[in-house]
Amino acid sequence: MRKAPAPAIDAAAMSHPVRIAALYHFTRFDDPAAIRPDLLALCETQGVRGTLLLAREGINGTIAGSADGIDSLLDHIRRLPACTELEVKFSKADAMPFNRMKVRLKREIVTMGQPDLDPLQGVGTYVDPHDWNALIADPDTIVIDTRNDYEVQIGTFAGAVDPQTTSFREFPEWFRTKRAELEAEGRTPKIAMFCTGGIRCEKSTAFAKAEGVDEVFHLKGGILKYLETIPAEQSLWQGECFVFDERVSVGHGLAPGDHTLCRACRRPVNEADRADERFEDGVSCPRCYGERSDEQRARYAERQRQERLAAERGEVHVGRRENASNDG
Question: The Rhodanese domain covers which part of the protein (predicted)?
Fold first, then answer.
Protein backbone atom coordinates (compact mmCIF):
# COMPACT_ATOMS: atom_id res chain seq x y z
CA MET A 1 0.00 0.00 0.00
CA ARG A 2 1.30 3.43 -0.90
CA LYS A 3 2.09 5.52 2.16
CA ALA A 4 0.31 8.81 2.67
CA PRO A 5 2.48 11.90 2.25
CA ALA A 6 4.05 13.36 5.38
CA PRO A 7 1.95 16.04 7.10
CA ALA A 8 2.62 19.54 5.83
CA ILE A 9 4.64 21.88 8.03
CA ASP A 10 3.12 25.30 8.55
CA ALA A 11 5.38 27.85 6.83
CA ALA A 12 4.83 30.51 9.49
CA ALA A 13 5.77 28.09 12.26
CA MET A 14 8.97 27.26 10.42
CA SER A 15 9.94 30.89 9.71
CA HIS A 16 12.22 30.72 12.75
CA PRO A 17 14.93 28.08 13.20
CA VAL A 18 13.53 24.60 13.72
CA ARG A 19 13.85 23.34 17.28
CA ILE A 20 15.41 19.88 17.63
CA ALA A 21 15.09 17.78 20.78
CA ALA A 22 17.16 14.66 21.39
CA LEU A 23 15.61 12.81 24.31
CA TYR A 24 15.65 9.58 26.26
CA HIS A 25 14.51 8.19 29.58
CA PHE A 26 14.76 4.78 31.17
CA THR A 27 11.57 3.88 33.00
CA ARG A 28 9.15 0.95 33.08
CA PHE A 29 6.24 0.96 30.63
CA ASP A 30 3.92 -1.98 31.24
CA ASP A 31 2.27 -1.54 27.82
CA PRO A 32 4.28 0.59 25.37
CA ALA A 33 1.76 -0.14 22.59
CA ALA A 34 -0.95 1.65 24.58
CA ILE A 35 1.20 4.80 24.74
CA ARG A 36 1.90 4.95 21.01
CA PRO A 37 -1.44 6.17 19.51
CA ASP A 38 -1.79 9.37 21.59
CA LEU A 39 1.91 10.13 21.17
CA LEU A 40 1.78 9.79 17.39
CA ALA A 41 -1.47 11.77 17.13
CA LEU A 42 0.00 14.67 19.11
CA CYS A 43 3.14 14.69 16.95
CA GLU A 44 1.04 14.91 13.79
CA THR A 45 -1.23 17.60 15.25
CA GLN A 46 1.75 19.71 16.30
CA GLY A 47 3.66 19.22 13.04
CA VAL A 48 6.51 17.45 14.83
CA ARG A 49 8.67 15.05 12.83
CA GLY A 50 11.43 12.59 13.66
CA THR A 51 11.58 9.21 15.34
CA LEU A 52 10.57 8.03 18.80
CA LEU A 53 11.26 4.52 20.09
CA LEU A 54 9.10 2.95 22.79
CA ALA A 55 9.96 -0.18 24.75
CA ARG A 56 9.25 -1.63 28.16
CA GLU A 57 12.49 -0.03 29.34
CA GLY A 58 11.55 3.54 28.31
CA ILE A 59 11.60 6.07 25.47
CA ASN A 60 14.30 7.38 23.11
CA GLY A 61 14.38 9.54 20.00
CA THR A 62 15.05 12.77 18.17
CA ILE A 63 12.24 15.09 17.08
CA ALA A 64 12.00 18.49 15.40
CA GLY A 65 9.36 21.16 14.97
CA SER A 66 8.27 24.56 16.19
CA ALA A 67 9.13 25.58 19.76
CA ASP A 68 5.45 25.32 20.76
CA GLY A 69 5.08 21.93 19.10
CA ILE A 70 8.15 20.51 20.81
CA ASP A 71 7.08 21.93 24.18
CA SER A 72 3.63 20.35 23.84
CA LEU A 73 5.12 16.96 23.03
CA LEU A 74 7.65 17.10 25.88
CA ASP A 75 4.90 18.06 28.32
CA HIS A 76 2.96 14.99 27.17
CA ILE A 77 5.98 12.68 27.55
CA ARG A 78 6.78 14.03 31.02
CA ARG A 79 3.27 13.03 32.11
CA LEU A 80 3.97 9.41 31.20
CA PRO A 81 4.83 7.04 34.10
CA ALA A 82 7.97 8.21 35.95
CA CYS A 83 9.10 10.46 33.06
CA THR A 84 9.36 13.79 34.90
CA GLU A 85 13.18 13.53 34.78
CA LEU A 86 13.24 13.13 30.99
CA GLU A 87 16.72 13.88 29.58
CA VAL A 88 16.49 16.38 26.69
CA LYS A 89 19.14 18.21 24.67
CA PHE A 90 18.06 21.03 22.39
CA SER A 91 19.57 22.45 19.22
CA LYS A 92 18.34 24.37 16.17
CA ALA A 93 18.39 23.99 12.41
CA ASP A 94 17.45 26.32 9.58
CA ALA A 95 15.31 23.64 7.91
CA MET A 96 13.25 20.66 9.03
CA PRO A 97 15.73 17.74 9.31
CA PHE A 98 13.12 14.96 9.03
CA ASN A 99 10.59 14.02 6.36
CA ARG A 100 8.00 12.28 8.53
CA MET A 101 7.10 11.21 12.06
CA LYS A 102 7.61 7.64 13.26
CA VAL A 103 6.78 6.16 16.67
CA ARG A 104 8.13 2.63 16.79
CA LEU A 105 7.74 -0.20 19.28
CA LYS A 106 11.03 -1.93 20.10
CA ARG A 107 12.40 -4.54 22.51
CA GLU A 108 15.07 -2.05 23.65
CA ILE A 109 15.29 1.72 23.21
CA VAL A 110 19.00 1.26 22.50
CA THR A 111 19.87 -2.26 21.43
CA MET A 112 22.68 -3.91 23.38
CA GLY A 113 21.34 -7.46 23.35
CA GLN A 114 21.58 -7.90 27.13
CA PRO A 115 17.94 -8.61 28.11
CA ASP A 116 18.64 -8.95 31.84
CA LEU A 117 20.49 -5.64 32.11
CA ASP A 118 18.51 -2.93 33.92
CA PRO A 119 20.02 0.59 33.96
CA LEU A 120 17.50 1.51 36.65
CA GLN A 121 19.40 -0.80 39.01
CA GLY A 122 22.60 1.20 38.82
CA VAL A 123 24.80 3.00 36.32
CA GLY A 124 28.20 4.68 36.43
CA THR A 125 28.89 8.00 38.13
CA TYR A 126 27.73 11.01 36.11
CA VAL A 127 30.43 13.57 35.33
CA ASP A 128 29.48 17.15 34.46
CA PRO A 129 31.00 18.43 31.20
CA HIS A 130 32.96 21.04 33.18
CA ASP A 131 34.66 18.23 35.16
CA TRP A 132 35.19 15.89 32.21
CA ASN A 133 38.55 17.25 31.02
CA ALA A 134 40.22 16.63 34.37
CA LEU A 135 38.92 13.06 34.52
CA ILE A 136 40.03 12.00 31.05
CA ALA A 137 43.40 13.77 31.40
CA ASP A 138 44.22 11.53 34.39
CA PRO A 139 46.68 8.85 33.13
CA ASP A 140 44.93 6.26 35.33
CA THR A 141 41.67 6.73 33.45
CA ILE A 142 40.81 4.52 30.48
CA VAL A 143 38.53 6.59 28.23
CA ILE A 144 36.17 4.54 26.04
CA ASP A 145 34.11 5.79 23.12
CA THR A 146 30.99 3.58 23.15
CA ARG A 147 29.79 4.64 19.70
CA ASN A 148 30.13 2.74 16.42
CA ASP A 149 33.14 2.98 14.11
CA TYR A 150 31.58 5.34 11.54
CA GLU A 151 30.76 7.81 14.32
CA VAL A 152 34.21 7.66 15.94
CA GLN A 153 35.80 8.15 12.52
CA ILE A 154 34.71 11.80 12.24
CA GLY A 155 35.45 12.87 15.81
CA THR A 156 36.25 11.74 19.35
CA PHE A 157 38.00 12.83 22.54
CA ALA A 158 41.79 12.97 22.54
CA GLY A 159 43.22 9.67 23.78
CA ALA A 160 39.93 7.76 23.74
CA VAL A 161 39.87 4.03 23.00
CA ASP A 162 37.89 3.12 19.87
CA PRO A 163 36.23 -0.33 20.23
CA GLN A 164 35.78 -0.40 16.42
CA THR A 165 32.29 -1.85 16.76
CA THR A 166 29.79 -1.77 13.92
CA SER A 167 26.86 -2.31 16.29
CA PHE A 168 26.24 -1.64 19.98
CA ARG A 169 25.52 -5.37 20.30
CA GLU A 170 29.26 -5.96 19.88
CA PHE A 171 30.17 -3.81 22.86
CA PRO A 172 29.73 -6.38 25.69
CA GLU A 173 32.08 -8.92 24.07
CA TRP A 174 34.61 -6.18 23.28
CA PHE A 175 34.45 -4.89 26.86
CA ARG A 176 35.03 -8.32 28.38
CA THR A 177 38.04 -8.86 26.13
CA LYS A 178 39.45 -5.42 26.94
CA ARG A 179 38.96 -5.93 30.66
CA ALA A 180 40.76 -9.28 30.53
CA GLU A 181 43.69 -7.61 28.76
CA LEU A 182 43.91 -4.92 31.43
CA GLU A 183 43.72 -7.44 34.25
CA ALA A 184 46.47 -9.49 32.60
CA GLU A 185 48.61 -6.34 32.77
CA GLY A 186 47.79 -6.00 36.47
CA ARG A 187 45.74 -2.84 35.90
CA THR A 188 42.49 -1.90 37.59
CA PRO A 189 41.92 1.53 36.08
CA LYS A 190 39.11 3.99 36.32
CA ILE A 191 36.88 3.76 33.25
CA ALA A 192 35.25 6.81 31.69
CA MET A 193 32.73 6.25 28.90
CA PHE A 194 30.97 8.65 26.57
CA CYS A 195 28.48 8.62 23.71
CA THR A 196 26.43 11.09 21.65
CA GLY A 197 23.68 12.01 24.09
CA GLY A 198 24.12 9.75 27.10
CA ILE A 199 21.79 6.83 26.47
CA ARG A 200 24.39 4.29 25.35
CA CYS A 201 26.46 5.18 28.41
CA GLU A 202 23.52 4.39 30.66
CA LYS A 203 23.66 0.84 29.38
CA SER A 204 27.41 0.48 28.92
CA THR A 205 28.21 1.72 32.43
CA ALA A 206 25.40 -0.39 33.89
CA PHE A 207 26.94 -3.35 32.06
CA ALA A 208 30.42 -2.57 33.44
CA LYS A 209 29.01 -2.32 36.96
CA ALA A 210 27.18 -5.63 36.52
CA GLU A 211 30.49 -7.15 35.40
CA GLY A 212 32.04 -6.12 38.72
CA VAL A 213 33.92 -2.95 37.72
CA ASP A 214 33.73 -0.41 40.55
CA GLU A 215 35.12 2.87 39.22
CA VAL A 216 32.97 3.65 36.21
CA PHE A 217 32.12 7.16 35.04
CA HIS A 218 30.25 8.66 32.13
CA LEU A 219 29.79 12.08 30.56
CA LYS A 220 26.46 13.55 31.66
CA GLY A 221 24.47 14.68 28.65
CA GLY A 222 26.97 13.09 26.29
CA ILE A 223 29.10 14.73 23.62
CA LEU A 224 26.27 17.07 22.64
CA LYS A 225 26.09 18.65 26.09
CA TYR A 226 29.90 18.93 26.18
CA LEU A 227 30.02 20.67 22.79
CA GLU A 228 27.18 22.95 23.84
CA THR A 229 28.77 24.07 27.12
CA ILE A 230 32.57 23.83 26.79
CA PRO A 231 34.27 26.59 24.73
CA ALA A 232 36.34 25.37 21.79
CA GLU A 233 39.55 26.80 23.27
CA GLN A 234 39.09 24.64 26.41
CA SER A 235 37.86 21.54 24.64
CA LEU A 236 39.54 18.13 24.36
CA TRP A 237 37.13 17.13 21.60
CA GLN A 238 38.66 16.58 18.16
CA GLY A 239 36.60 16.68 14.95
CA GLU A 240 32.82 16.66 14.64
CA CYS A 241 30.03 14.67 16.27
CA PHE A 242 27.71 12.50 14.18
CA VAL A 243 24.03 13.19 14.87
CA PHE A 244 20.98 11.18 13.89
CA ASP A 245 19.21 13.62 11.62
CA GLU A 246 19.78 15.47 8.37
CA ARG A 247 22.39 17.78 9.89
CA VAL A 248 24.67 14.68 9.93
CA SER A 249 27.34 16.29 12.14
CA VAL A 250 27.81 19.20 14.55
CA GLY A 251 30.78 20.96 16.10
CA HIS A 252 31.35 23.22 19.09
CA GLY A 253 28.33 25.25 20.02
CA LEU A 254 26.33 22.60 18.11
CA ALA A 255 27.03 24.47 14.89
CA PRO A 256 26.33 22.35 11.76
CA GLY A 257 29.38 20.41 10.61
CA ASP A 258 30.88 19.74 7.20
CA HIS A 259 29.72 16.15 6.73
CA THR A 260 26.87 14.91 4.57
CA LEU A 261 25.39 11.43 4.41
CA CYS A 262 26.01 8.67 1.89
CA ARG A 263 22.48 7.54 1.06
CA ALA A 264 23.71 4.10 0.09
CA CYS A 265 25.47 3.07 3.31
CA ARG A 266 24.30 5.79 5.76
CA ARG A 267 27.89 6.71 6.67
CA PRO A 268 29.07 10.32 6.98
CA VAL A 269 31.19 11.67 4.13
CA ASN A 270 33.46 14.71 4.17
CA GLU A 271 34.69 17.03 1.43
CA ALA A 272 37.51 14.69 0.42
CA ASP A 273 35.08 11.77 0.18
CA ARG A 274 32.76 13.79 -2.04
CA ALA A 275 35.66 14.66 -4.35
CA ASP A 276 36.57 10.98 -4.74
CA GLU A 277 35.68 9.37 -8.10
CA ARG A 278 33.85 6.59 -6.25
CA PHE A 279 31.39 9.06 -4.75
CA GLU A 280 28.04 9.51 -6.47
CA ASP A 281 25.30 11.26 -4.56
CA GLY A 282 22.74 8.74 -3.38
CA VAL A 283 24.62 5.84 -4.99
CA SER A 284 28.04 5.24 -3.42
CA CYS A 285 30.97 6.63 -1.44
CA PRO A 286 34.62 5.56 -1.07
CA ARG A 287 33.74 3.37 1.92
CA CYS A 288 30.85 1.45 0.44
CA TYR A 289 31.76 1.34 -3.25
CA GLY A 290 33.44 -2.06 -2.91
CA GLU A 291 30.65 -3.39 -0.71
CA ARG A 292 27.91 -3.03 -3.31
CA SER A 293 27.28 -4.67 -6.68
CA ASP A 294 26.65 -2.86 -9.96
CA GLU A 295 23.02 -3.98 -9.70
CA GLN A 296 22.65 -2.43 -6.26
CA ARG A 297 24.22 0.83 -7.37
CA ALA A 298 21.83 0.92 -10.33
CA ARG A 299 18.89 0.61 -7.92
CA TYR A 300 20.28 3.38 -5.76
CA ALA A 301 20.72 5.59 -8.81
CA GLU A 302 17.08 5.07 -9.77
CA ARG A 303 15.96 5.82 -6.22
CA GLN A 304 18.03 9.02 -6.28
CA ARG A 305 16.43 9.99 -9.61
CA GLN A 306 12.94 9.46 -8.20
CA GLU A 307 13.78 11.53 -5.12
CA ARG A 308 15.07 14.35 -7.33
CA LEU A 309 11.92 14.31 -9.44
CA ALA A 310 9.74 14.32 -6.31
CA ALA A 311 11.69 17.28 -4.92
CA GLU A 312 11.16 19.18 -8.16
CA ARG A 313 7.42 18.62 -7.73
CA GLY A 314 7.62 19.81 -4.11
CA GLU A 315 6.87 16.33 -2.76
CA VAL A 316 8.62 13.89 -0.44
CA HIS A 317 9.53 10.65 -2.19
CA VAL A 318 7.78 7.84 -0.29
CA GLY A 319 10.81 5.58 -0.60
CA ARG A 320 13.18 8.09 0.98
CA ARG A 321 14.93 6.78 4.07
CA GLU A 322 15.57 8.95 7.10
CA ASN A 323 18.88 9.10 8.88
CA ALA A 324 19.32 6.52 11.61
CA SER A 325 17.13 6.94 14.70
CA ASN A 326 18.71 8.44 17.77
CA ASP A 327 21.10 5.89 19.24
CA GLY A 328 23.19 8.28 21.19
Answer: 137-235
